[in-house]
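fyi for ur records
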Amino acid sequence: MRACIETNRLILKNMAPENYKEQFKWCGDPEVAKYMIYSVYTREEDCKTYIESLNPDDPNVCDLGIFLKETGEAIGMGGFTYHPEEDAWEVGYNLRRDMWGQGIVPEAMKAILEYIQGIREVKAITGTFAVENKKSSRVMEKLGMTYWCECEFTKLDGSEKFKAIRYRKDFV
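which gave:
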């Protein structure tokens, strides 16, 4: 989905290939990647390849860069992906470590969700996070989600498996 959304502090918009060095600041950080589905990136060029692989015309994916309004700097990514088998949109995000704890992710995700709700029906939202990742449980709660079930997830490269919790909020 193509979008450009503004909040008090942020501009949320599609990433461009030239943002790859900024993206590497969080994707290349082992602390940021610790509980993510991707393994830590080791080359900046891999971020450029990832950005180029995104399809901003997919109506079931709204994955946007999180840019500081004040500086224009990309500090993270976030958005929602529609899963028809659950009839729900799943939240996902990551943020540069020095930006943690400032309420940026809830601000961004609420704005993106409102945008999607303005153009698509949203019956439910879900989120999955590693049990050890307590900060993500707070984000889910700030989005109005509550505990749904336990599960597990594996990094895309199969290198690690995590016990996880799924949160959900129904709108109907």
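The chain has a mean pLDDT of 96. thats all i got for now
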